[in-house]
Amino acid sequence: MLPEEDLARVREHIARAVAERMVEDTAIDWTVVRQLDKPILRVQACLQDGSKQTANQSIPGPIITHLIDLSGIVHPSRATPEAPEMLRGGSNNGAAQQQSYTGSRQPPAEQSAAAIVPDNGRITPPESEAVSSGDATPARTDQVAEASAGRQRRPLGGLRPARRDRGSVDLEDEPSSQRQISSGDKFPKRRKQQPTGHVLQPSTLDKLIRGIWEQIHGSLSLDPQNLLDQVQLRPLESAPFDETNSKLGLVLQPGGQGSIVQDSVYDSSRSFKRSNVFCSQVTQASRACRSLEVIVQARWVEHFDAYVDSLAANDLSTPRSRFNKAALMEACSDFGWSEKELRNKMSIWRGYNEIKQAGGWASLVFAGMGIYRFCKYRIGFDKDSMQRLRNLRPAIEVAADTLHPNWRQLLTTIGEPSRQIYRGHPHDYAICLSGSPPVPLRATYLQWDPNFSYQHIDEPVIDEHAWGCDDPRWTPPTTSSSGEPSALPLCDTCGKEQSDDPKQNSCFCFPTLFGAARPLPAPVLIFRTTDGRNNGLMALCAFERGAPVGEFVGVVTKGLSDVDVMESAVNASAAKYQIWQGRQGNFTRFVNHSCKANAQYQRFTWLGTQRIVLVSKGIEAGSEISVDYSDKYWKGLDKKCLCGESCCRYRRDETDEAGQ
Q1: How far apart are the first and last CA of the chain?
Q2: CB under 8 Å to 324, separation ≥6 — which residues?
Q3: Whole-model pTM?
Q4: In 3D, which of 617, 612, 548, 566 has the Cα closest to residue 182?
């Protein structure tokens, strides 16, 4: 008999190993489990010698048959204060299970397991709320079963075939059906991955570039006309000073004596909305003024150097440093600053000018607050950093011109032209990472299709010739956990109510795409690949594990073959539909395949309509976004995988190509 400490350690090791294996390799379809009158989880275990000498010997029969009653968890309303009935292994197990699974769509052997936990643990469905401590805990018993000595079993290795998810939709077609990208319904774990060993932290330049992309793809407004309207506060100009302050205080004061806010909810809501608008306008004006300040200071450095050059050109016998000192003292007199103060500020302003020389004016306007720290301490301010910023200049200007068409009007204050260079959609251009001028997206496909055209859309388009007025993505309404119908649609993932009204919405599975938030442009760009894959999609900012990148948008149709489509269905009995992005869609069309993908396509239902969402598995800034097209796409396809990963599953060797 082992000591108590060893027994506890063995118990914990077995529980953790089995639980992790069952959670990672299986997934319970709780909609099917809830249809069972008395759901039971059956676990069998056998003990054998794992050495190589005994690898070919027969595996003995199970020594433990463990049955766990899940009735109190799956059907909490039926749970009784007493302990549930214990089901024992033996000759009666088959009859008991057959009776419990009567009417089920699946036999007991195909039921997936949730998790096995230590003796004091509990099993909880992932989408259900935690059971209170006052509920009855399912009782479990172990019984040693008789070993089946006469039955031979084939030994298994360390690898196991993946189990089919019974809740997923079977989309297998005839062998002739190819190029169909599949989506899953397993939500990626959002647990933060702990890095192993030392991890390089982002450099100061990385933070600066990330701030530029965040500002460009954010809600920043740099229209000079709006800036003037927000700063002048024209409705209050004619009022006396005291009256102006009083009116301004009414906007900012949340309540109290002298406030326009009344006791009614309507007046309070109206005042809150007005305060939101006013605060947003002031914030936008402050941010625009900061951008204007930076470009003026960068231009001042150019005027200072030009003035010193003109003084030195007129008197070649005098050292240049003397003219530099004279110009500096003249500027100190105009600014009213000391020489030390101006020298310190001038050092930072010169950094602004160097960034402008490498990344253009757009890199200054959208740099954010991190540019001051970058130019003050000048960490990583070298030729390699400036060359990297110089290569990103076309991409920055394309995004700035297409997302903020009026930003160049700020340059008129320093005498620069305000003509917009790039027009249209930000993804109408394929960026060259070498710093070459952007290529129109259409030009990258003319060698295969001379009539190629692509329209960027934000919402899927239903093919009326294929579906008429029906939407094949519609799903029937679900009921709440209590069994009563809900007034609002319920989320299949979290079980919360969904609504476009921020006051009623409780589902925050993908808040940047669906719900109350206004979707912002995804920080991604289409770039030209150098390994024969034509175009690809790059993440400009990091996407955490489980965060949405965008929705797979296109034409919802059916019956297409030999073209890249996304095929799905709301359930096993529903009609299959296809999303085709050949002529209409969004940036998800340009996501390449990789056998070691950092993203996945996931089915998600919003307001009763199934959506396909591109979800991150942990995407770093500056890396290419890739997904696994699945075996169904590559099945019988005369195409070579170019992902370049060491674990590539679809690499065609030269011998295979020669044989074909």
Answers
A1: 64
A2: 308
A3: 0.68
A4: 566
Structure-block tokens of residue 118? 């230590």
What angle in degrees, to the nearest 10, is found between the helix axes of 265-314 and 339-365?
120
User: Locate tokens 């595996």: which residue?
Assistant: 59
**Amino acid letter, 151:** R
At 542, list the tokens.
Answer: 């990091």
* Residue position matching structure tokens 């075939």: 161
The answer to which of 97-106, 355-364, 398-407, 427-436 has the lowest mean pLDDT is 97-106
Residue 457 confidence (pLDDT):
95
Measured CA to CA, the distance from residue 601 to residue 615 in angstroms comes to 6
Closest alpha carbon to 323 in 338, 306, 339: 306
Q: From the CB of residue 588, how many other CB atoms can be counted at a distance below 10 Å? A: 25
Where do the domains of the chain lie, and which CATH numbers do they carry?
A: 4-127+135-143 (no CATH), 169-188+459-518+545-660 (2.170.270), 204-237+266-424 (no CATH)
CA-wise closest residue to 614 among 643, 582, 589, 577:
589
Q: How many CB atoms lie within 10 A of CB 654?
A: 7
pLDDT (tens digit per residue) in 55-88: 566 666 677 777 777 777 767 665 544 433 333 3
Token representation of residue 309 = 């050059």
Q: What does the alpha-carbon distance between residue 330 and residue 327 come to, in Å, rounded to a whole number? A: 5
On the question of pLDDT at 577 being above 60, the answer is yes
* Lookup: tokens for 106: 């699946």
Work out the number of other CB atoms within 10 angstroms of the CB of residue 399. 25
The confidence band for 377, taking pLDDT boundaries of 50, 70 and 90, is confident
Nearest to 524 by CA among 477, 434, 591: 591
Partnered with residue 579 across adjacent β-strands are: 556, 566
The confidence band for 387, taking pLDDT boundaries of 50, 70 and 90, is very high
Compute the distance between CA of residue 92 and CA of residue 180 in angstroms, rounded to an integer.
Answer: 46
Axis crossing angle, helix 370-377 with helix 204-216, rounded to the nearest 10: 160
- Residue of 284, 587, 286 whose CA lies nearest to 429: 587
563-590 mean pLDDT: 93
In degrees and rounded to multiples of 5, residue 439 shows phi and psi of -105, 135
Contact 355, 363 (CB under 8 A): yes
Distance from C-alpha of 155 to C-alpha of 56, rounded to nearest angstrom: 7
Mean pLDDT of 118-124: 38
Alpha-carbon distance 503 to 613, whole Å?
Answer: 24
H/E run at residue 627: strand 626-627
pLDDT in tens, 218-275: 888 877 666 656 555 444 444 454 554 444 454 455 554 444 444 566 677 788 888 8
The position carrying tokens 């506060």 is: 233
